[in-house]
Specification:
By secondary structure, this protein is of the alpha/beta class. It is 34% helix and 14% strand. The structure holds N-carbamoyl-L-aspartate (NCD).
């Protein structure tokens, strides 16, 4: 039962709950393609507090809420909220609690979403906290893998790029720990997965840990590419040392299996060249589109919306 629950980390969901959301996502997708109007969340209000840039995540949460019949209020910029006047997160959350039924928050500090749950009895959904977690991205990543390749079990999944600061990677690893997979970790040495995440990932599911993508590219069913999280570096020299250290281009993609996919949470900078976009294996825009039905499924469950209440 997800009703009334906050989702801050991927660890807040067990495997059966993850699968429950993925199942509900398929129904949401069908409703979307049939053009049926849903009223499951009529009268409910979502507050979106985005204290960090976002395009896909915020818009897909908002679109999801509208598609379910609910409405959205929100702050898209710190500048335009009272946080700019020095209001604490605690006070902001206490206020927003009175205005809404569910609070979606993105914040530059690790742990901010968890902190927010202490100041409200309303469910809080973490839309990304610093280099912490991004659980709804993971749900859409899992949904995409299943939809594109039929199942998650049995796959070899290679994660490429900034595995240190990338919150989508941290959440994805915690989720993949539930499945029969082999995960390769490909990154410059200074961008490896932090120990506090790695220790929660079973050794038996870990494949290669390498700097060299060529070692794993041919066996990969999923290549999950990430952006170097420039904004998280405290040492400019460290950032400079990893710029341009990997790039996925057309020639590289030609060495991949025919039935494989390239994913990316987006935004990309230069880590996938645009020539790859037309390859059928390039799944990243389809992946981004899955953000709406996945968030519809999750929000409907959290707010207790039932099928059957829709017209
Ligand atoms: C990611 C994020 O914000 O963590 N973007 C997203 O939500 N799709 C990835 C990133 O910013 O690189």
């Amino acid at each position: 039962m997800l009703e009334g629950r906050s989702i801050v980390s991927m660890e807040d969901l067990d495997k059966s709950e993850i699968l429950e959301v993925l199942e509900a996502t398929s129904s949401m997708e069908q409703a979307l393609t049939s053009g049926r109007r849903l009223h499951m969340l009529d009268g409910k209000i979502m507050a979106t507090l985005f204290f960090e840039p976002s395009t896909r995540t915020r818009l897909s949460f908002e679109s999801a809420m509208h598609r379910l019949g609910g409405s959205v209020i929100g702050v898209a910029e710190v500048k335009s909220s009272s946080v700019a006047k020095g209001e604490t997160l605690a006070d902001t959350i206490r206020m927003v609690e009175a205005y809404s039924d569910v609070i979606v928050i993105r914040h530059p500090q690790d742990g901010a979403a968890r902190l927010a749950t202490r100041f409200t009895s309303k469910p809080v959904i973490n839309a990304g906290d610093g280099s912490g977690q991004h659980p709804t991205q993971t749900l859409l990543d899992l949904y995409t893998i299943r939809k594109e390749l039929g199942s998650i079990d049995g796959l070899k999944i290679s994660l490429l790029g900034d595995l240190r600061f990338g919150r989508t990677v941290h959440s994805l690893l915690l989720a993949l720990a539930h499945f029969k997979v082999k995960v390769n970790l490909v990154s410059p040495p200074i961008l490896r997965v932090p120990n506090h995440i790695l220790e929660k990932f079973p050794d038996s599911k870990l494949g290669s840990v390498t700097e060299n993508l060529n070692e794993v590219i041919e066996e990969s069913d999923v290549l999950y590419v990430t952006r170097i999280q420039k904004e998280r570096f405290t040492d400019e020299a460290e950032y400079q040392s990893v710029i341009g250290s990997y790039s996925v281009n057309g020639a590289l993609v030609q060495t991949m299996k025919k039935k494989s996919i390239i994913m990316h949470p987006l935004p990309r900078v230069d880590e996938i060249s645009p020539e790859v976009d037309t390859d059928p294996r390039a799944a990243y825009f389809r992946q981004a589109a899955n953000g709406v039905p996945v968030r519809m499924a999750l929000v409907a469950k959290i707010l207790g919306g039932e099928y059957g209440t829709d017209a």
